[in-house]
Amino acid sequence: MYAYIVRRVVYAFFILIGVNLITFALFFKVNTPDDIARLQLGVKYVTPEAIAKWKSDRGYDKPLVYNGGAEGRHKFTDTIYFEKSVEMFRFNFGRADDGRDIAYEISTRMWPSLALAVPVFLVGLLLQITFALMMAFFRATYIDFWGVVLCVVMMSISGLFYIIGGQYLISKLWNLVPISGYVEGFDALKFLLLPVAVGVIGGIGSGARWYRTIFLEEVGKDYVRTARAKGLSEVVVFFRHILRNAMIPILTGAVVAIPLLFMGSLVAESFFGIPGLGSYTIEAIQAQDFAVVRSMVFIGSVLYILGLLLTDISYTLVDPRVRFE
């Protein structure tokens, strides 16, 4: 098992290096430092002096990858790639174009994102699996049929409809919770109830239908027929055997969602005025702040690779075939 985990860690490290290189190429080859300077200065006719000053103030006046004018190791360290990309491995993100420290903004804004995403993830996962188990248990009945119809209907409705409909019905008409906003501490609960409910409801359709397919695939396997032949009840078969053997695809979908928990929901945070990482990314894109966008892309890559690594490790906990490979 330990050799399996070590291999996955090594693979993850090289994948992260590759992602870092690709991200750098996309940001600094497609948009050169001169192009970034022109976008940030925001005027129609920009003088070369203004561009040079903007680049010098923010460290974009150096060579991209190799500095032939420097000596020794500074040929590689005194470059844009080292200062803007390699330093990210130390979680040194530098400053945004407006002067704010990016690491401080991330450490501050991640808590509202987690406060929204974690309840949506946990409650949503519980309801999706429960609903899927119910449809699979009563398969080929009216409960299963109308359950699938409900899932398809919920999947066909845009997430924006749930957000706008929830704000209009719950906040404006019934005046139960605020439409948008956020405060620190326990008072944040009243601002999170509506976006959490909208996030849970919006994900039930696709999630429950996917888990139902997984459970139905397990129902037809030989070990299920053997368990029934031993006289086990259908409830015991479902919860002791089918649910346990369906854990690998469930874990695959659940653990990979870890980046979304940290990064937040771009749409929900913007609509509900929650100052999380999702809204921070949207604001950076609108302001064309490439330093922030580049940092968020890197963090997203790290978390996604970490999610894949945790998925591989979780396989060793639920599948002995992987554990003793």
Please describe what this structure looks like:
This protein has 17 helices and no strands. It has 325 residues and is mainly α. α6 (102-137) crosses α9 (188-219). It has two domains: 2-90, no CATH class; 105-323, MetI-like fold (Orthogonal Bundle). It starts with a helix and ends with a helix.
Features:
MetI-like fold; globular; 74% helix; 325 residues
Work out the count of structural domains. Answer: 2
| Spatial shape | globular
Catalogue the unreliable spans. Answer: none
User: Treating each run of at least 4 consecutive H or I residues as one helix, how many helices?
Assistant: 17
- Structural category is mainly alpha
Terminus-to-terminus distance: 7 Å
Strand content: under 5%
CATH class categorisation of the largest domain = Mainly Alpha
Computed Rg: 25 Å
CATH-derived topology of the largest domain: MetI-like fold
For the residues shown, what is the average pLDDT? Answer: 85
Strand count, sense and barrel status of the largest sheet are: none
What is the helix fraction of residues, given as a range?
over 70%
Number of strand segments = 0
In CATH terms, what is the architecture of the largest domain?
Orthogonal Bundle
CATH 4th-level superfamily of the largest domain: MetI-like
Quick overview of this protein structure:
The chain is built from 17 helices and no strands. By secondary structure, it is mostly helical.
